[in-house]
Design goal:
The complex is a heterodimer.
Chain A: E1 9-12, E2 18-23, H1 26-29, E3 35-40, E4 47-50, E5 64-69, E6 72-77, E7 86-93, E8 98-100, E9 104-108
Parallel strand pairs in A: 1-9
Antiparallel strand pairs in A: 2-6, 3-4, 3-7, 5-6, 7-8, 7-9
Chain B: E1 3-7, E2 10-12, E3 18-25, E4 34-39, E5 45-51, E6 58-60, E7 68-73, E8 78-83, E9 92-99, E10 106-109, E11 113-117
The chains are: A mainly beta, B mainly beta.
Chain lengths: ~110, ~120
């Protein structure tokens, strides 16, 4: 399994919405919906933002939402805020291994 | 509060060995599958290995299979990663991460520990 493909960077102005894509193959995503998204600020550990494609853990802002169509998952951040500036990684559990995306740097203009 | 604290990192020569530890607290460790994930400097995340709660199910990424060994001691609430035959490309921050109760998601992460492989 190669890494899932994400755009290297995405930017937006405060208040705007942005979407990050995560593309793989059918074997990358398996027959499960175990797609997760992680936020990572510089020098910090990753933080779970979305799990099982669309679910938000307790405490994560509802400005973050996830979706999936075919072999592409997406993370949308609405009402972009300065604190959202970070690296974002998608991940898929295939049933035997975890595969991460290449990572996307989100810049708030 | 879930806490995962890695230790054991540092500088090691190519070909050398190192054992990482992850001390868990704030949850019932012996009921969770645990993982190791690493991140090379300036690079993305790479999953390395997991071990089920009972230690019966283990899996490794191809990049470390045969060189790294995951283990756990449920009595000590600890996860380990024995790393042998280290290479320069193993230089990274190593994270331990907990699987969600339902599986398929890494829901809690340690702060990470740096391993540098260099002569």
């Amino acid at each position: 399994h190669s890494a899932l493909t994400q755009p290297a960077s995405v930017s937006g102005s405060p208040g705007q919405s942005i979407t990050i894509s995560c593309t793989g193959t059918s074997s990358d995503f398996g027959t499960f919906n175990y797609v997760s998204w992680y936020q990572q600020h510089p020098g910090k550990a990753p933080k779970l933002m979305i799990y099982e494609v669309t679910n938000r853990p307790s405490g994560v802002s509802n400005r973050f939402s996830g979706s999936k169509s075919g072999n592409t998952a997406s993370l949308t951040i609405s009402g972009l805020q300065a604190e959202d500036e970070a690296d974002y990684y998608c991940s898929s559990y295939t049933g035997s291994i975890y595969v991460f995306g290449t990572g996307t740097k989100v810049t708030v203009l | 509060e879930v806490q995962l604290v890695e230790s054991g990192g540092g500088l090691v020569q190519p070909g050398g060995s190192l054992r990482l530890s992850c001390a868990a607290s704030g949850f019932t460790f012996n009921t969770y599958t645990m993982n190791w994930v690493r991140q090379a400097p300036g690079k993305g995340l790479e999953w390395l290995s997991y071990m089920s709660s009972s230690s019966r199910v283990i899996n490794y990424a191809d990049s470390v299979k045969g060189r790294f060994t995951i283990s756990r001691d449920n009595a000590k609430n600890s996860l380990y990663l024995q790393m042998n035959s280290l290479r320069a490309e193993d230089t990274a921050v190593y994270y331990c991460a907990r699987d969600s109760p339902w599986g398929g998601t890494l829901d809690s992460w340690g702060q990470g520990i740096l391993v540098t492989v260099s002569s």
